[in-house]
Amino acid sequence: MPTEELMAFELLADRFAEVNDRIDLPDTAFYQGLAEGVRGPVAELGIGDGRVARTVRPDTGIDGSGRALERCRERVGDGIRLIEADLAEYTLPAPAALSYAALNTFNHVATRGHLRRVLDNVRANTEPGGLLAFDAALPDAAKLAARDSVVVERFADPSVRWEDTTRVVDLADGRVELGIRFERLDASGAVAERVYGPPLPFRFLWPEDVPEDLRATGWRLLDMWGDFSRGPLRADGRTAVVLAQAQEDGR
């Protein structure tokens, strides 16, 4: 993970954990179902503060942020091996039967070349015939252009508010930078604390690139859905949920 991106995650790890304590997303049940269906080790890629792992209970979790892993240990307790490493560089003690990456983890891989290195390394750490599952945000070029430098509220409750500003870096490649602001509110709703994060790289995945990137790194695409209920991926869909299988010969 590039230094700038790692610094952003280190600074914001505690704030992300605060929000994750307050949300309930459908991805957890999806990944839990996959994990329960395999025989063999399970690894979470980009485990972060353990929002999904506390339910799925993978054997291993990998993340580049040491602070996020500290929060993860607090959340999940013992029993899950945690590895601090770039997703393109980790090594598992035994090949995984399933690796999964939740909540747009692969969108935080800043370039397509780096994503391919990640996919290649995940395949190297997966048993032949093993599975890879992930979800990813898909681009809407017109919406991205219209939202350039516009503040958007992502989450709010009586005590915490999260806003971000999207700055388009390369529209054709789907690359943007997110300027994130967290606010903690007092009982009257006034801002008691405000934290600004450094620019966080984010790259939307073009759905037509996903099968090609998987093939090039030794995976076979099994399915690509439009939601965690395995509904079809529509032309105007903004989320892809992907399931792939490691090829026997690695290519």
Shape from CA axes?
Answer: globular
Task: Report helical residue fraction.
Answer: 25-40%
**Taking all residues together, what is the mean pLDDT?**
92
Give the termini distance in whole angstroms: 25 Å
* Share of β-strand residues: 25-35%
Question: What key phrases describe this protein's structure?
Answer:
alpha/beta; single chain; 12 strands; 7 helices; 28% helix; globular; seven-stranded mixed beta sheet
Strands, helices and their partners?
Layout: H1 3-20, H2 27-36, E1 42-45, H3 53-56, E2 60-63, H4 66-76, E3 81-84, E4 96-101, H5 112-124, E5 126-137, H6 141-147, E6 151-156, E7 160-170, E8 175-185, E9 191-196, E10 200-203, H7 209-216, E11 219-225, E12 239-246
Give structural notes:
- With about 250 residues, the protein is an alpha/beta fold.
- Helix content is about 30%, strand content about 35%.
- The protein has 7 helices and 12 strands.
- It has helices spanning about 5-20, 25-35, 55, 65-75, 110-125, 140-145, 210-215, and strands at about 40-45, 60-65, 80-85, 95-100, 125-135, 150-155, 160-170, 175-185, 190-195, 200-205, 220-225, 240-245.
- The chain has a 7-stranded mixed β-sheet, sandwiched between helices.
- A hairpin with a 3-residue loop joins strand 6 and strand 7.
- Helix 1 (about 5-20) runs parallel beside helix 4.
- The longest helix is centred in the first third of the chain and has 18 residues, at about 5-20.
- The radius of gyration is 18 Å and the shape is globular.
- The relative contact order is 0.16.
- The mean pLDDT is about 90.
